[in-house]
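## retry 2 of 3
previous attempt timed out at serialization; input unchanged, resubmitting
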Amino acid sequence: MESRGWLWLLAFLAAWIVLNRWVLPWFGVPTCMSGSCRVYQQPPEVRSAALDAPEEEEGESR
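## retry succeeded, writing output
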């Protein structure tokens, strides 16, 4: 009977992966497994330019 518990766990895990990898993205639901939660980093030159820019004081307008 103990092995039946492992089979249920494996079946659940397989169903979860299939659902998140193929089924939900096919219906238009974004999931991390479909690649929709990638963090896009700015190139180093854009990051350094943003860090070098002077900060504006509140109430100050250009």
